[in-house]
Amino acid sequence: MSNENLQREEAANRSALITTHSYDVSLDVRQAQDPEVTGYTSRSVINFSAREPGGSTFLDFISGDVHSVFLNGKGLSVADVVDGSRIRLENLQAENQVTVTGTALYSTSGEGMHRFFDPADGKCYLYTQYEPADARRVFANFEQPDLKAEFTFHVMAPSDWEVASNGAEADRTQLTSDPATSRWDFAPTRRMSTYITSVLAGPYFKAEDHWSGTLADGSGLEIPLALFCRRSMAASFDTAHLFQLTKQGLAFFNDLFDYPYPWGKYDQAFVPEYNLGAMENPGLVTFTENYVFTSRAADSQYQGRANTLMHEMAHMWFGDLVTMQWWNDLWLKESFADYMGTLGVDSATDWDTAWVNFANNRKAWAYVQDQLPTTHPIVADIPDLEAAKQNFDGITYAKGASVLKQLVAYVGFEAFIAGSRRYFKDNAYGNTTLADLLAALSEASGRDLGLWARQWLQTSGISTITADIEEHDGVLGKVVVVQDAVDPATGRQELRPHRLRIGLYDFDTDGSLVRMDSVETDLGGHATEIPELDGKPVPALLLVNDDDLSYAKVRFDPRSEATARESLGALRDPMARALCWTALWDAARDGVAPADRYVAAVEKFGPAETGIGVLLNILGNASTAIDRYVPAAERAAVRGSFLDAAARELAAAEPGSDHQLAWARTLATTSRQATGRLDLVRGILAGTTVIQGLSVDPELRWSLWHALAANGQATEAELDAELARDTTASGRAGHATALAARPDAAVKAAAWDAAVQGTALSNQLLSATIAGFNTAPDGLLDPFVEPYFDCLERVWAERSIEIASRIVRGLYPAGQDLDGTSPDSHAVIVQTDGWLAGHPEAPRALRRIIIEQRSHLHRALTAQAAAAKARSVAP
């Protein structure tokens, strides 16, 4: 409905009029186990004050039905006051109480109250997910982050279920009239925003523990801990490790922030079909159950889970205790949590590669996002909720965290933490803007951060930094570091200050490539001379932005590029290697160097890469390079060589190692578009080819089946038989992907109809079906280009924003190859441009997705054209 998309001005007007005090919310989910029952009774009692008695405002409630509305004891006509997703409240008093009772609807999209039936045992599981504004799908409320209140929840549910909420369980009563039902009453929370309230209900497995800490003043702090997952996954739930990480994080952040954990208990629930990695609901954090590793996981996956755990814990202060006033300042919580998550893993756990993985993975996400025409400042312009939904991106998270890392280098870690502590104490349980944070950090550091904020937080785009080197007789002469920083959205140069280190690497006596010297410097403007390098020996590799202090793309000078491509395996420092891999990948994505050269580097140096996180990343990049950036005429040969490398390294890898797992996964994914190793794929599946130490578990099996299905070598009966042996939720998704991957026109049409026309697929199965649909040989998906553009506005209008976004993004015809000499003349690019020109009034969030997908395709076509041109002029 049109009035679901709350505008920023509407939110500002509402918060200027009212102050919310408390909510008392009752939910009756006792019939959730019946799939024919689509909704549940929801009752909200809200106490709030109005600054202008006699004025009017509105509540938000996206429901199946509104039964009754009482304002200050007077029943209102539902027909008169309910308008779509809003309930009008007029003639307000100074102090008000409104009670709304209605039927809220269960969701299969991950928005609001998500309901999931476990295919393993048929059990029903519920959980809520609200960010940015889906609490209104569960109970009537004032849905915006600056209208905080205390919340008391009551839940009616089956007596044999586990039920949890933000507050601690205060009472549980079994109904005498219906012993199969109990009522859970939870303690009131501290003041928080609606979008971080939470309810969990179902036959979850629960583990309990507690953490005891000593605060700076010598007093003690006791925090009850709990972990939840579906019962069918309990055997894989490594609770001891998760509790250990939780305790390490609580000890670290309580000490670092010098503000006691403010939310009482600390529950963490791992839930099915989750749209996010995790969500920072105070006292009840929810995570994707993909973090319960039912199949073999690499160490980097465990570290990634730890990073997410620390990220969400940091939110208990950044985001929950102190919350942004409106979604413009989403970065105030997400950028800090992203930075603090990595800091927590690095400082509080045994992993020593947290910042390497941050540089190689998280920053890479930011670099991609920041080169799109839809990039935006870290402090973004968010006019409405649809825009807010689209802004949970690489800029808000990873670029913001990268910039904060640079700020720490600029003002010093102690000043940064001192400013953060002041920020918490000054704004506890309140809402803030950029100005509030800058005031606290400026006071602590003694620096005026206004200019820094304007240059880094309020501009868009990424700087590209290159060293221009003069040398004489093996000695460096004049070295100038050149910065190019064009904002893709405006075309303007946005030159920023950079604090960075320049590393000089050369070969040691044992052949290792090691750092012999370095200088730390500040860049400003377009060109900065580095006099400290004058007279130093010419290095084999000059690494700009050594140690990853700044946020920028790096272009190698010719000598350094040659060293990287010929001797990357000799580079001993993991961070330096990761930065070189990133520079080579940027060159491939930008069409500066043919993408097959990146693939060749991965084949050559990947086997010796010690960091499993880096290895998995570069193997994924190589697959993307082959599929998207290598010209079609060369693709089969490049893919065949890469597939041979995967098979070779799988056989050579240490049995049972993470590297063996990485190459096995690469064999499976690369085989989806190649036939050269399908006998090996089927042999591994059938058990006739045994690779010592390799765990051929469900995740790997479904990936191998995907490869066979995509090549027309897996029947529906075979896939059904595999599903019969793996009745889990992930098995069901793997089955959906493999079925849709079969290279048959009727199969693709059925998958298209299920995704676009049907509504039966849950969020997880929709994405699985789209993934299979997109696995197709050249030309098979061409008949769906026209229907794609024809369905866009209807899909956006009829489906929830989560589901619509998955369809619009996932089904864009991105797997196209250059069909002429110019990417601009490609048929799909021309059609996309025509749709955008012909639909200027289409929702802003929808247009953003289309513009971004066009940009990704145009980049791929540009890289193909550049590679083809380079081949044509090569001697």
Describe this structure in words.
The structure is a single chain. With 875 residues, the chain is an alpha+beta fold. Helix content is 42%, strand content 21%. The strands form six sheets. Strands 1, 2, 4, 5, 8, 9, 10, 11, 12, 13, 14 and 15 form a twelve-stranded mixed sheet that branches. A five-stranded mixed sheet has the order 16-17-18-20-19, covered by helices on one side. A hairpin with a 5-residue loop joins β16 and β17. The termini are far apart. The relative contact order is 0.06.
Biggest sheet, open or closed, and with what strands and sense?
12 strands, mixed
Q: Identify the overall geometry.
A: globular
Provide the gyration radius in Å. 28 Å
Helix fraction bin? 40-55%
Overall average residue pLDDT: 95
Topology:
Elements: H1 8-17, E1 18-28, E2 39-50, E3 57-60, E4 65-71, E5 74-76, H2 78-81, E6 82-83, E7 86-89, E8 95-107, E9 112-117, E10 124-129, E11 150-158, E12 162-165, E13 169-174, E14 181-186, E15 199-202, E16 205-214, E17 220-229, H3 239-257, E18 266-271, E19 278-279, E20 284-288, H4 299-315, E21 322-324, H5 331-348, H6 354-369, H7 385-390, H8 395-411, H9 413-427, E22 430-432, H10 434-445, H11 450-456, E23 464-472, E24 475-484, E25 498-507, E26 513-523, E27 527-529, E28 541-546, E29 553-555, H12 558-567, H13 574-589, H14 595-605, H15 612-629, H16 632-652, H17 658-670, H18 678-686, H19 698-710, H20 716-725, H21 729-741, H22 745-757, H23 763-774, H24 785-798, H25 801-810, H26 827-838, H27 844-873
Parallel strand pairs: 1-11, 8-9, 17-18, 18-20, 21-22, 23-29
Antiparallel strand pairs: 1-2, 2-8, 3-7, 4-5, 4-8, 6-7, 9-10, 10-15, 11-14, 12-15, 13-14, 16-17, 19-20, 23-24, 24-27, 25-26, 25-28
